[in-house]
Amino acid sequence: MRIDVHCHFLPESGRRAHERGADWHGTMFSRNDAGILISQTGPRRFTFGSPLHFEPMEQRVTRMDARQIDTEMLSLLPPLFRYEVAAADNVAAARDVNDELSALTKRFPGRFLGLGTLPLQDVEASVAELERAMALPGMVGVSIGTNVNGINLDADELAPFFDAAQALDAFVFIHPMDQRHAGALDRYYLRNAIGNPLETTIAAASLMMSGRLAQLPRLHICLAHGGGYTAAALGRLEHTWRVRKEVEKDGAHSPAALYRRFFYDSLTHDERTLRHLVDFVGVDRVVVGTDFPADMGMTDAAIGIAASTAFTTDEKTAILGGNLEAALGLSPAAAG
Q1: What does the alpha-carbon distance between residue 78 and residue 39 come to, in Å, rounded to a whole number?
Q2: Model pLDDT for residues 255-304, shown as the tens digit of each residue
Q3: β-pairing verdict for 37-41 and 27-31
Q4: Bridge partners of 174?
Q5: For 3-9+57-328, which CATH superfamily applies?
Q6: Cα(269)–Cα(4) distance, rounded to whole angstroms?
């Protein structure tokens, strides 16, 4: 199987609301002159960069075949995580999204797995929704943002979510959102090109250096966009852990002891960078991610890896699906 860990969708309920001219749990959808999806939630406006969000799922499956992807792990578009809205509104939205994801896995057997969404501005409600969603057919985990209204993922108030995710064997995909370094990154689309990987790096570093990751030995966590700068920054993070008083000197907090606890998607946009990532974190920690259908994604990543001379046959097998099959319990390898 070739499994894509990083691909987004617009809920059908959102498309129907757009067609009626209605809002979706307080979010309005529209299209610009190029047919690109735009969302408006209160004052927050986001342009998504692809007209393909409006395609029916039957057409998406056809595109998967052309992209040589067997199964997509579908997750909500990150600007629709909506951590900034009233919790009650987001609880209702999360239930709709998660129910729809489960329904898609039944409607297209074997083609989709669900990574649900949660109203993380209300951790108690998130735990309840996680328990409900993980009991639905086809749901294997959740996708969350790199921060919750500016709060890093190691915050004590988020610990019940991570504990519940581990207890429920939920796969957690961490995707950047709400880049907190605006201003300097406002030009040239740097808020995405640099800001998104930076957000992921902050999330990974916070989970490692706080010791939170060490407290979750059975939890599978995957970082988007090749883990951002996590691999490149590891030496500096480890040095910081050793010499700075701001970091507790507990072996459980050592980044060098923890970085291989993450999975890293393959979305590096450069074969040499991906080769380095595989060598650095280990081939067993790298999985295919395309960010379909975003314009910043790599639509044909699986085709490129399969055809590459930079990876061995065994490495390709692991990256293209073997690692996720084992992590999700979809293959005999998981039993070992």
Answers
A1: 11
A2: 999 999 999 999 999 999 999 999 999 999 999 999 999 999 999 999 99
A3: antiparallel
A4: 144, 223
A5: Metal-dependent hydrolases (3.20.20.140)
A6: 15
Q: Are 168 and 131 in contact (CB under 8 A)?
A: yes
Query: pLDDT tier at 179 (50, 70, 90 boundaries)?
Result: confident
DSSP H/E element including 40:
strand 37-41
Beta strand 171-175 with 221-223 is: parallel
Provide the 3-class DSSP secondary structure of residue 245. Answer: coil
Q: How many angstroms separate the CA atoms of 245 and 261, rounded? A: 25
**Other C-beta atoms within 10 Å of 197: how many?**
23
Q: Decide: 322 and 314 in contact? Cβ < 8 Å.
A: no
Structure tokens at 226: 């090749």
pTM of the shown model: 0.95
pLDDT digits (tens, 9 = 90+) for 39-81: 999 898 999 888 898 889 999 999 999 999 999 999 999 999 9
Are 120 and 83 spatial neighbours (Cβ–Cβ below 8 Å)? Answer: yes
CA-derived radius of gyration, the chain: 19
Task: Give me 177's structure tokens.
Answer: 């959102």
Which residue has 């939205």 as its token pair? 93
